[in-house]
Write a structure and sequence with these properties.
InterPro entries: YkvI-like. The chain is about 85% helix and about 0% strand. It is an all-alpha fold.
Length: about 350
């Protein structure tokens, strides 16, 4: 059970970054569609559960040491190269969004200019990546369970203390500019770009698991937990859509409404998730291009950090609305490949079992 929880926790930790924890992504892909968006959240929950199971299981069957092993096995040589590059550069894009998110967070909670906040987050992330302090990453990642508990409590508070009916809130939602043209497309896009970020860690941890059953259940638990949290948070945000629609950190706003102290606690937790995600994605991006632990890797960390900071100046809300949908469409390739690969390897396993019986 411990190994299963490790896989599930790592999957959740990668996905729950600035956009998820703050609620901004959920507004864009679910809440802005009103009650249909909640149905979209259910669809996404099912997809997360299946893909978590499939990727962890494939990683174990292939004894994957990196996402390349799984990608090339299920996509082939040429498509595999495209998906490999997609995952690699999405890691950089997520880093950019996290740096912008850090600036937006500090500005909303403490009135620190977003530019200054992004500089501070960039310096911290680059320092951790250069030092390769794995204990720091694990320590920050430990805030994930607290985020789940507090975010769930805040969302339920918002649902039960809402001032408008869901019919009225649905009308408010119809006036918002959602991230896609249809709620079902939004549900698929949300899973698509998130699974691009989650595929590397699922493949690696699935490959290191002792049993395929353990890897599969770890993926299932992680996907189901993500789906449940996503649904509850979406319902909470819909309950306050009339006041949080234009905020970069809507969950933080609801937490501060409950209590200023809870707002500070939520701010610290989201900040930890931002740093954790940014460190993980920047490290993954660089490790794919440069040998880790070398002088060139550290210099590359500084250069990539500066480039990511410059790109983050576009702004958090704009980046979430532009970067994630773009990679979401590209990520459909990976989702389809995972489905086909899972079915193909499963069929091969059944054929092998029949041959052994004969």
């Amino acid at each position: 059970m411990k190994e299963q929880l490790k896989i599930a926790g790592a999957f959740i930790g990668v996905i729950v970054g600035a956009g998820f924890a703050s609620g901004r992504e959920l507004l864009l892909f679910f809440v802005d569609f009103g009650l249909w968006g909640l149905l979209g959240a259910l669809v996404s929950a099912a997809l997360f559960t299946f893909l978590g199971m499939a990727l962890a299981g494939l990683g174990n069957r292939l004894q994957a040491a990196s996402h390349k092993d799984v990608v090339y096995a299920i996509c082939g040589r040429y498509l595999g190269l495209f998906v490999d590059l997609l995952i690699t550069f999405f890691m950089f894009a997520v880093t950019v969004v996290m740096l912008a998110g850090g600036g937006a967070l500090l500005e909303q909670q403490f009135a620190i200019p977003a530019l200054t906040g992004s500089v501070l987050v960039t310096l911290l992330v680059v320092a951790v990546v250069c030092l390769d302090v794995q204990k720091v990453i694990l320590l920050i990642g430990a805030v994930t369970p607290f985020l789940i508990l507090i975010a769930t409590a805040i969302a339920l508070y918002a649902v039960f203390t809402r001032e408008l009916s869901f019919a009225a809130l649905n009308q408010v939602a119809s006036q918002q500019q959602a991230g896609t043209s249809h709620w079902l497309l939004g549900a698929f896009l949300y899973v698509s770009y998130n699974i691009v970020a989650g595929a590397p860690i699922l493949a690696i941890l699935g490959g290191s698991a002792r049993l395929e059953k353990t890897a599969i259940w770890g993926g299932v638990l992680g996907g189901a937990a993500l789906g449940g949290l996503m649904l509850v948070m979406s319902a909470g945000l819909l309950s306050r859509l009339d006041t949080v629609a234009d905020l970069p950190m809507p969950m933080l706003s609801i937490a501060s409404e409950i209590s200023p102290a809870l707002g500070v606690i939520m701010c610290v937790i989201i900040f930890g998730m931002i740093v954790n995600t940014a460190v993980g994605t920047l490290y993954s991006f660089l490790a794919r291009l440069l040998p880790a632990g070398t002088r060139s890797f550290r210099l590359g960390s500084v250069a990539a950090g500066v480039a990511a900071f410059i790109c983050s100046l576009i702004g958090f809300i704009s980046l979430v609305g532009q970067v994630y949908p773009f990679f979401g469409y590209l990520g459909f390739v990976l989702m389809l490949a995972v489905l086909i690969g899972w079915l193909r390897l499963g069929r091969a396993k059944r054929v092998l079992a029949v041959q052994r019986e004969v």
